[in-house]
Amino acid sequence: MKKKVLTVDDSRTIRNMLLVTLNNAGFETIQAEDGVEGLEVLEEANPDVIVTDINMPRLDGFGFIEGVRRNEKYRAIPILVLTTESDAEKKNRARQAGATGWIVKPFDPTKLIDAIERVTA
Amino acid sequence: MDMNEIKEIFFQECEEQLAELESGLLKLNDGDRDPETVNAVFRAVHSIKGGAGAFGLDDLVSFAHVFETTLDCVRSNKLEPNQDVLKVMLKSADVLADLTNAARDGGSVDEARSKQLIRELEALANGEVPAASEAPASKPALASQAAAPAPAAAPAVNDEGFQPIPFSFDDFGDEEKPVAPFAPTCEILFHPKRELYSKGNEAALLLRDLSRIGEMSIRCDMDSLPLLEDMNPEEAYFSWKISLVTEKGEDAVRSVFEFAEWDCDLEVRTVEEDVEADAGDDELPMQPVPFDLSILDDGDAGATAEADEPAEKEPVAATENNVVPMAAAARAEAPKTETRSAPAAQQAAAAPAAAAASAAQAAAAAPTIRVDLDRVDRLINLVGELVINQAMLSQSVIENDNNGVSSINMGLEELQQLTREIQDSVMAIRAQPVKPVFQRMSRIVREIADVTGKSVRLVTEGENTEVDKTVIDKLAEPLTHMIRNAVDHGLESPEKREAAGKNPEGTVRLTAKHRSGRIVIELADDGGGINREKVRQKAIDNDLIAADANLSDEEIDNLIFHAGFSTADKISDISGRGVGMDVVKRSIQALGGRITISSKPGQGSVFTMSLPLTLAVLDGMVVTVAGQTLVVPLTAIVETLQPEASAIHSFGASQRLISIRNSFCPLVDVGRILNFRSTQANPVDGVALLVESEGGGQRALMVDAIQGQRQVVIKSLEANYTHVPGIAAATILGDGRVALILDVDAVVAASRGQSLKQEISLAATG
Does A46 touch chain B (CB under 8 A)? Predict the structure, then answer.
C-alpha cells in the first residue's frame, strides 16, 4: 500500500512541485487548494500524512490544522507545515494549532520526503 | 510534468498574483480596509516568493521578502496603509513585475530602482514598528537589513536557508562539543508529554529515527504507568533512556527531536568514554525494548527513491509490531473505538461546517480550466468554416428545391440557429475581461505622473466588461499612448490646477461598457481640455489647414488625430517619440473601431473608442457594386435610402450632394472610388448607404443594390494576399464566392479629394 499524502496549498506552482516530488517518491497524492477544501476532502482522501501551507485564502493553515485536530478520526494524523515562514513565532502558532512538524521553503524534495518519513511509520 | 513545465506554471501564476497584488493595492488606495484585501495582497507576494525560492530566483526572492515584511506590518496593523505607503507599494509591485519578467525572459531590471524601493520599504517597516517587544521575530531581521548597505541578499538567505535547529535551545545552551576522533556515545533522556502525541508525533518513530544515526540501546521507563482502571488513555506515561553511539554528534540527535522538543523533556549529553552498552538489568522497570535494528541497514534518513520503499516496508512493519503497541498503550488509540460515537461524529461534522461558513464569506469562484489559446483559435476557425458551409448548404437547398419541402427547410433553419449559437459560444470562450489591460494602465499612470511631477488618480470602471482576447491584446498599445497623452498633455500641473480652483490631483477615468454589440471604452481626464487656439495655430503652421479656414470646434479637436500632430511646446520623454494620436487612431481603426473626442475648455477631454467585440465575425450588409459583391460593416451604416432625382445636387465639377432632411451630404460612388468603373453611376438607379465615419461626418455611399444582411466570417486579406486600399478584409459567402469587405473609413477619406492610394500611403508614412 502506498502512503497517502494530502497536500493543501493555494499556489499552483507549489502544488505541482509537491505532486511531482511525492509521486516520484512513491506516495499517493491528494491535493487541495486551501484549508476549506482540505477539510472537505479529508474524509474521502483518508490520508496517512498531511502537508499544508500556512498562508491561504478562505481558511489558512492554522485554521485547517485546528479543523483536522477537531476531527476524532484524524486528530492524531501527522501534519507537516510547508511554508516560507521560518520565524519561531509562526512555527509556534502552527505547533499550537497542532502541527506535527514543518518544512521550511524554498521547496526541496529531499527535505520534504525526509520530513514525511520522519513522522510516518 | 518536469521542472520546466512547473516553472512555466509558476510564471503564469506570478502574472495572476501580480494582478491580484495590484488590484488589492489599488483597493487599499481607495480606502478599502478589509483585512481580506490586505491578506490577499500579502499572499500574492508571499506566493511569488515561495515559488521563486524553489527555482532559486534569488533577486525575486530578496525583493519579495522585503516587500512581504513591509506588507506584514500592514497586515498586523503596525503600519497604516496611507497614500504615501501605498505609493511605495504600488511602485514595488511594478518592480516585482519587472523582476518576474526578467527572471522569465532573462532581461535585466533597473537595479538602482529596485534597491531604492527596498530602502523605502524597509524604512516603512522600520519607521512604524514601534517596539521590539511587539515584533520580536521581525525586528532583528529588519535591523540587519537596515544596517547592511546592500541588504537584498543577506536576510533572504538567512531566512530561506534551512538549518534544522536554528533556535530555542535555551535550556541546554549552545555548547558545541568538538567531534571526537572515536565515536562518542550520547546519553538521551526522552520523556514525551501528552501533547507530543496529540500533535501527531510518535515516540516510536523518533526512536526509529534515532536508531538510524547510530548504534542504539534503549530502555523504557514504565514507572509512572498506573493501574489499568486509573489509566487515562490520552496520557503519556512512558519515558526512555537511550544510549546512542554516533559520530554525528548531539546536533543530529537533537534534530531528530526537532518537531517534538517542545512536547517532551529531553536531555542529551555526550559521554566521552565508552559507556557500558548495557547498564540496567538491575533496574527492574527498565526493560530493554525489543527494537528492530535491522532498519539500520537501510537507515538513510534522506532516502527518497522508490527503490527504498519496498526495502523499508518490512522493517517498518516489524518496528510497528514491536514498538508501536507500547506507544499505543500509552495513548490507547482512542480514535479507533470512538469514531462512531455521537459526540465525535458531531465534532467531525462541525469542522467542515465551520469551514463552510468561512468559505461563504469569500466569493465563490466559478471553476475554470486553462486552455491553450491555439486550441481555441483552431476551434473558432472550424466554426467559421461551419458557418460558411451551413450558409452554402442552405443556399443550394433553396436553389434546388423549388417545392420548398418544409421538413428540410425547418431542419436547415434549426441548423442555422444552432450554428449561430455555437459560434456565439465559441466567441464567448475568447472573451476576456478588459481588466488586465486596465490594470496595466494604472502602472502607466504612476510612471508618467512621476516623470511629469503631476498628481494623478486613475479611476477605472467596468473592468469586467468582456471582449475578444485579440481586441484586448491590441488595445494595450493605443490605450497606453492615450493615457500618457491624457496625463502629459491633458492634465495641468498641480499649481495650475490649484490656481484654477481644481483639486491639485488630476483624475483620469477609464471606463468600459457594452453598447449595441460593441465595446465602448472611454478615457476622460479632468484637465484643461483641448486648447483650440493652439491646435488651430499648429495646424496652420503645419499646413494642415488654410490660415483662414473656418472650422467648427469639433473639427479643430479632430485635428489632433492628424499625422505628426503634437501640441506640447516641447517634446517630452513620454508622448514624444514621434508617435501621435494619428497612430492611435489607426490602431483603433485596424481593430474595426472608431475613436472620437469631445472636449470642454477648462473641464477636460473625453476620448471615446467604440470597438467590435470580436475580430472573427462581422454583421454586414451584402451589396452589389458594378457587378461585384461587397460587404459593408453594419456598424458603419446609419440608414439606407433610395435617392430621388430631386434630392441630388451637383457641386463643382464632379462632386454631388444628396439632401437628406434639409441637410446636404456628399455622395460617394463606391464603384468609382474602387475603380470598378470609370464614370459615376446615376444615383437614382442605386441605393445610398448613409454612413458615419469618425471625424469625417456623414457620407452617402452609392451602391447598385442591396442583397441582404448577413453575419460573415472575416478572412484577413493581409494574411492571405496583401493589403488592398479601401478593402478591410474578405469573406466567403453562402454560394462559395469570395466577397470583399469594404473599409468604410478609407473610402470616405478617399472621397475627400485624395485618391485611395495617396491616402493610404500618407497614413502609412505619417
Answer: no
